[in-house]
Amino acid sequence: MNAPQKTASKTATKPAGKKAPVKSARRRSREAALQGLYQWLLTGEDIGAIVALGREQEGYAKLDLKHYEALLGGCVHEAADLDVILARHVDRKTTELSPIEHAILMIGAYELKHCLDIPYKVAINEAVELAKSFGGTDGHKYVNGVLDKAAVDLRPLELAAKR
C-alpha cells in the first residue's frame, strides 16, 4: 500500500514542464522588425504597407513600438549605409547573404550605430538570439562574428573601456 503513495507523491511533486521565458517588449520589437525587414528585402514593398501589415499581427500591442519603428524604419532608410558597414566584415556581398541573416545583421548594426543606451554586448547577443530562432543552423555563429567585428568600428570607446 505504501508503494502507490510514493509513486503518487513523486508524480505530484514533479514540475509540470518548462515554460518558455517571457519575451521582453524589446525582444518582440526586434522579432517584428526582423519580419518586416525580411519582407522588404524580398519584395522591396513600401515600408508603410509593411508597417500597416505589422499592426494587424497578433501581439503588436506587446511591442516596444518606438524601438520597433526605429529599427524597421531606420534599417530601411539606412540600408545602403548599413551594408557598407557590414561589407567590411562579411565574406561575400551583402546581397548574397541569406535574407534572414542579412536582416539580422542590419538590425544588429543599426543598434550598434544608433542605440547607444543598449550595451554593445547586448545588441550582439540579441542579434545572435534572433539568428538562433529564425536563421540557418549555424547562422548565429556568423552573425556573432560579423557584429563582433563591426562593434570595433561602431563602438570603439565602449570596447576600449571594457579592456
UniProtKB/TrEMBL annotation:
Involved in transcription antitermination. Required for transcription of ribosomal RNA (rRNA) genes. Binds specifically to the boxA antiterminator sequence of the ribosomal RNA (rrn) operons. PANTHER family: ANTITERMINATION NUSB DOMAIN-CONTAINING PROTEIN, N UTILIZATION SUBSTANCE PROTEIN B-RELATED. This is Transcription antitermination protein NusB. Residues 1-28 are annotated as: Disordered. Residues 16-28 have a biased composition (Basic residues). Pfam families: NusB. Residues 28-151 form the NusB/RsmB/TIM44 domain.
